[in-house]
Design brief:
By secondary structure, the protein is of the alpha/beta class. It has helices at about 20-35, 50-55, 85-100, 115-130, 145-160, 160-170, 180-200, 205-210, 230-235, 260-265, 285-295, 310-320, 340-345, 360-365, 375-385, 390-405, 410-420, and strands at about 10, 40-45, 70-75, 105-110, 135-145, 175-180, 210-215, 245-250, 275-280, 300-305, 320-325, 350-355, 370. The strands form 2 sheets. The protein has a 7-stranded parallel beta sheet, sandwiched between helices. Helix 13 links the parallel strand 11 (about 320-325) and strand 12 (about 350-355). Keywords: Glycosyltransferase, Transferase.
């Protein structure tokens, strides 16, 4: 006999295998939900073939970690035929949400990315009510950043009122609205204010009153308390040694500043003592590999494109410095910086980054901040990190880890769901 869940969490996002911090965040919130009393968690996401068609950076399928019992990943098939090339997939997701919202199970639905996920949830809720069936759903929409910088901002700049209104009204139709950083919240409000000024709408006022902050959720247990012997063994497989490399680990896009990092590494004194390890995939991978191949230090620059979530913490823990020289681009601004917080949890070398977007909220006072697009400053920062006495390095690492513990998935989950008033009642042990 099939057991009917007492409560359910539905998460709508770009899930694995997409290389994206908020893909990992969805996983972490799902795991936290199971620990906190949700009987069932369903992650509604995109078919693998559709993800591959988009050109998004993807992890190798055989490296995806399994989810805990009670967490189900659904990839609804497209609806209709080839004459509806894009809407078919969104129709599949929206249709599945309607089914979940009308089956009698009390449900909380969390969407990450306003477009298209929150739009799909808004449409599904409206359709569910129109069926006349009982609906018991609470919705939470999380603006993660690029959905604002890439969608809402472009609408503002291009004067596309209708598209902007669609995104913002869908967002505000949700029961609870959150953003991943104060930077993201203010970006939404300022974009809404520009729309209001031209069209006489009241989006900014509503956004300012309703949007709260919910920082990304991280599985801190994967980064804290790593066995030094396992770290050494993991590095050895890659031909690396502890403190023997400078690390970049993120998506390979123009906004991440990897070109500046390579130039800075070339100018650093540390180039003689440490290798540069670049971990990730993305649209700039080919260009960056070509740039590195032309470097006089080509034999000391290593690219790794097959690192999974299990190996990542050990590479972070073993590095001499972690560098993410992010820079604002029209298509993307770093609205938080999940990888930076993960690095601080893992320990390892100093974090070197820029004051871009919401990065300061992720690192606090625990990173070396360099100007955007400044290889010389990156070189100086790398050399300073390499020169730190061991005792001072350990002290700084401990302080950074303490700061980053606020992003533990259990803490983030409790704050987010308590704020929404939808935490399940704890059952007796």
């Amino acid at each position: 006999m099939t057991r009917i869940p007492r409560n359910r969490l539905v998460i709508v996002n770009r899930a694995d295998p997409v290389i994206c911090g908020h893909s990992v965040e969805g996983r972490n919130l799902a795991e936290a939900a199971r620990l906190r009393g949700f009987d069932e968690v369903r992650i509604i996401t995109w078919p693998i073939e559709r993800l591959e068609e988009t050109g998004l950076p993807l992890k190798p399928l055989d490296t995806m970690l399994p989810y805990s019992d009670g967490i189900f990943v659904e990839r609804p098939d497209p609806v209709g035929d080839y004459k509806v090339p894009d809407g078919r997939y969104l129709a599949g997701i929206t249709g599945r949400l309607i089914e979940l919202f009308t089956d009698g199970v009390p449900t909380v639905c969390l969407s990450l990315y306003l477009s298209p996920h929150t739009i799909a949830v808004a449409d599904a809720v409206r359709a569910a009510w129109n069926t006349g069936l009982p609906v018991n759903v609470t919705t939470i929409a999380e603006a993660v950043g690029s959905d604002v910088t890439n969608v809402v901002r472009s609408c503002v700049e291009e004067g596309r009122f209708g598209a902007a209104a669609h995104v913002l009204s869908s967002y505000l139709s949700q029961d609870h609205c959150v953003a991943v950083s104060e930077y993201t919240r203010e970006l939404i409000i300022s974009s809404a204010a520009e729309i209001d000024a031209v069209h006489g709408t009241r989006f900014a006022e509503q956004c300012r009153a309703r949007i709260a902050i919910s920082y990304p959720a991280i599985d801190t247990s994967a980064y804290v308390g790593l066995d030094p012997a396992v770290t050494e063994a993991t590095l050895a497989v890659r031909g690396l040694e502890r403190d023997g490399y400078v690390l970049f680990l993120s998506r390979l896009t123009k906004a991440k500043g990897v070109d500046d990092l390579i130039a800075g590494y070339e100018r650093s004194a540390a180039r003689h003592a440490a290798r540069l390890v670049i971990v990730g995939r993305g649209p700039e991978e080919g260009a960056l590999r070509e740039r590195a191949a032309q470097s006089p230090l080509a034999d000391r620059i290593v690219f790794l494109d097959d690192v999974d979530d299990a190996e990542k913490p050990y590479l972070m823990a073993g590095c001499a410095a972690y560098v993410l020289p992010s820079k604002p681009r029209p298509e993307f601004v770093e609205t938080f910086g999940i990888a930076l917080a993960e690095q601080m949890l893992a320990g390892g070398g100093a974090v070197i980054t820029t004051d871009t977007g919401g990065i300061i909220e992720a690192v606090g006072e625990h990173a070396t901040i360099v100007p955007v697009e400044d290889p010389d400053a990156i070189a100086v920062a790398i050399d300073a990190a390499m020169a730190l006495p061991p005792a001072e390095r350990m002290q700084r690492a401990a302080a950074a880890r303490s700061y980053a513990m606020q992003f533990d998935r259990r803490i983030v989950f409790e704050r987010l769901f308590d704020g929404a008033g939808v935490l399940p009642v704890r059952m007796p042990a």
